[in-house]
Amino acid sequence: MDDSDAPLALEGPLGRALKAVTDHWLVTAPLANPAMLEIFAGRDSPPYRNMMPWAGEFAGKYLTSAVQVYRVTHDERLLDFLRAFVARLVSLQAADGYLGPWPADSRLTNFSPHHGQNGMFTWDTWGHYHVITGLLLWYETTGDAAALVCARRAADLICQKYLGNPPVRLVETGSTEMNLAPIHALAKLHRLTGEERYLQMALQILDEFAARDASGNPLAGDYFNLALAGKALYEMPRPRWESLHPILGLVELYAITGEERYRRAFESIWQGIVRHDRHNNGGFSSGEQATGSPYDYGTIETCCTIAWLALSAEMLKLTGDSTVADEIELTTLNSVLGMHSASGRWSTFTTPMDGARFASAHAIVFQARSGSPELNCCSVNSPRGLGLLSEWAVQAAEDTLTLNYYGPGAVRAALTAGRVELVQETDYPISGRIRLRVNPDGPLAFALRLRVPVWSQEPHIHLNGRPQAGARPGSYLELRRAWQPGDCLEIALDFRPHFWAGERECAGLTSLYRGPLLLAYDQRYNPHLAAESPLGPIPDDCFKVSRDHLPVPVINAARLEDTPLEWKDWHPPLLLLRAATDQNQPVYLCDFASAGAAGTLYRSWLPVSRVGRPSPFRSE
């Protein structure tokens, strides 16, 4: 990979994950699963394919993931592959602008009479949303005018069918958490093109958030009004994870209009998820929706966590709040790394707090079809969690550079007066020591803002050997000066353990953190503590694995050692630490992302004694 022009030339665990998912999934998935595009080509040719209601999303989610990964790596192989993929996708658009997999009489109706015994409700406008989103990202990245034309024609068809309250409103076609998602893409298209009808259609969908049927029952989530009234997502009528995508439309409407109510509603929803539904591993959802409990053991679906990251990336741009970046890092280093195999070839359907890792290709194999044996909602979506680094790792604005990402490698950015490279020499997140070399093209005056994580209670930062004052946890340290090539910052973050005491379903249990990493007990590293499970062998179904399958002794938190251990066998964890019980029996804990990678059971909610300082990640 030629990364000479890449904005992020990452090493360490994220660098390895980006390369693996590019090599073994992104440049192979459409070839190994040709139906990803062929379902569009054969949509009007009976006998019709047996498809999932959301089949039209696969190409769009794949393209969005791949383009965002490319934005990080600038991998030329991926770029060439995507050129061919987009050209083929664009060629499959119907004359009227339709770009879905359903027959002509079903286009954008969200119902197909040809599928199922009595027909089937589809997520066709949801599929178009994801395809338009992917095409717009591709256009913004490459300037490919054909992609923008294709996206506009698809949006024009949505407007033609639904703008102006025709006999059937979009909200009345069902599955509203999904099928109202085009509000986000339409508003973004308006910002790109200035086309007024896109904004009008987006505002019409916004009004439809509050729609009710003849009996007064809500047809959608009423996300906007209820958020302004202080309700959290779990308190709204439609709290499924897909609703995060139409909620993203609020950010675009704020950017277009400057109306503070859009911003307030969006921020309220984000804060509500952090307080009530973000799990200890940074994942979002319980059983595919908000429930109001971060301790709920329902499945933490990959698609839900990716949508949460996309929401958080917009929240960071909107607020500039460093604690939002802390949240993104928590999710990325634990859930996103944990949902991917080391090879990059597969990802999980659910990445539970306690349990086992199951590839989505067999956990939700019901989505597999002839020609697309590996495709499901999660397999095409998971790489986006890595690609979203392009949205938050480093942010440049005029004469200010904000560094949110810590880890080995280099980041590059352009300011108004010149370009800057930041080179990090570190093993972060294994330790909190970072040597940061600042290399502008020449002497350059600008402000460098360094994220001080909320969990780092005693940070220490030196510039060219001189201590810098003002580093406070949960904020940015801003250093404004005339920078010279070779200036060096020494950053020491506080890696003392912090603890989240469980409640409700996790009462009496504790989550342990070291810096940004959640620690876990994995049976692989503790064969000396093997105990007969009261529930018998590990089930072969991710929905049936319980924490009770894996007994864990009480861990004395005061005996958690700080020195990482070497794992000499293959498939080493990112981090391995020694702890002990009250009786000084050794217990070994690994980082959450590595837990269960070998097919063993793991737990991150643990019986712990001698708990120390509370974690700022704990829910309120």
What does this entry look like structurally?
The protein is globular and about 70 Å long. It is built from 18 helices and 22 strands. Among the domains are: 1-162, no CATH class; 395-428 and 433-492, Immunoglobulin-like, CATH 2.60.40; 497-609, no CATH class. A hairpin with a 2-residue loop joins strand 7 and strand 8 (418-426). It has 620 residues and is α+β, with helices and mostly antiparallel strands. The model has no long low-confidence stretch (mean pLDDT 96). It has a seven-stranded antiparallel β-sheet with strand order 1-7-8-9-14-11-12. The chain is 34% helix and 17% strand.
Keywords:
620 residues; alpha+beta; Immunoglobulin-like; seven-stranded antiparallel sheet; 18 helices; globular
Q: Helical percent range?
A: 25-40%
Rg is 24 Å
Biggest sheet character: 7 strands, antiparallel
Secondary structure class reads alpha+beta
Q: What would the average pLDDT be, to the nearest integer?
A: 96
Number of helices: 18
- Shape designation: globular
Q: How much strand?
A: 15-25%
Low-confidence stretches: none
**Total number of β-strand segments?**
22
Strand order of the largest sheet: 1-7-8-9-14-11-12
How far apart, in Å, are the first and last alpha carbons?
44 Å
